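Example record

One chain of 170 residues, shown exactly as stored in the release files.
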Amino acid sequence: MLFPRKPRIGAALFVASIFGIALLAPVLQSRQNGATPQEKAAEPWTDTQVLHAADLARELGTAKDGTTPTIIYVGFRTLFEGGHIPGATFRGTASKEEGLADLKKWLDTLPRSTNLMIYCGCCPFDRCPNIRPAFTVIHEMGFTHVRVLVLPTSFAADWVEKGYPMQKGL
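Predicted structure tokens for this chain:
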């Protein structure tokens, strides 16, 4: 036997404790800074600017001429082509500079009082790379009636699978 039993156990415990400390270090650091793991940055929109799928579907079903919001899809083009909310317009992938530029150029043609509703649905809403940059640009351009469609899981799960209307193509 090369090493006695007690030192091997001690060495294993030492390695395990170092590994455990390395895993816990980010959590301990964030708590020292006053943050908890559940905290996240505040959203750029207010609660009154949030719209859920059932509410939008109901709104679209009862809208009269001129009251339907202008629906803007700000996600990935291939997903838009695969299926989107009827009447939605694709205005560039907002996580990319060229997408934001396309969105800004198009928005410049609209009155700032236009009833806008933006959505993506590419992935879980809390991790979407497109919705926040799009909302920020629209807000900074001075639009006064902007809402965000919250699709917690994805467009497929939270819109299509619920049986709400959808169209394909551009």
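Notes: The mean pLDDT is 80.
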